[in-house]
Design goal:
- The chain has a seven-stranded mixed beta sheet.
- By secondary structure, it is α+β, with helices and mostly antiparallel strands.
- The chain contains three helices and seven strands, in the order βαβββαβαββ.
- Strand 2 and strand 3 form a beta hairpin.
- Helix content is 24%, strand content 30%.
- It has one domain: 3-Layer(aba) Sandwich (Aminopeptidase), CATH 3.40.630.
């Protein structure tokens, strides 16, 4: 099934809204997150992510986790979700986005993230 990205609807969520796979990720990595978002296509949850807002003004947002349900992977949904997370962080005056993920290097590099020597990735937002 090809996904039309215009069908993706984003929603604020809480842990109770998450399907099992995403709930496990949130429990393991997202407990501190204050921004939880899910994506739905035709009322079915297909993906989600959790962000932690920076403590300092204009600091970095932490992308605690991002995931697409297996049957919706390799169709651009993850990239679309990452773009949404970037937009949320930037709209809240974030300086950039960082993640401590050690896997998915290709995914994050394609999105413009750079590797951090201590582990994870970072993306700087540049003012216009």
């Amino acid at each position: 099934m090809a996904i039309n990205h215009r069908q993706i609807e984003m929603f604020r969520a809480d842990e109770a809204d998450l399907p099992k796979v995403l709930a496990e990720l949130h429990k393991a990595y997202g407990n501190e997150a204050d921004l939880l978002r899910i994506a739905r296509i035709n009322e079915q949850i297909v993906a989600g992510y959790a962000l932690l807002s920076p403590i300092e003004r204009q600091g970095y947002f932490d992308l605690n986790w991002i995931s697409v349900l297996p049957e919706f992977r390799r169709q651009g949904v993850g990239r679309w979700m990452a773009g949404h997370a970037m937009g949320v962080a930037e709209s809240k005056s974030g300086r950039g986005l960082r993640t401590r993920h050690r896997e998915s290097e290709k995914f994050f590099r394609v999105l413009g993230f750079t590797v951090v020597p201590t582990g994870g990735f970072t993306l700087e937002f540049f003012p216009e």
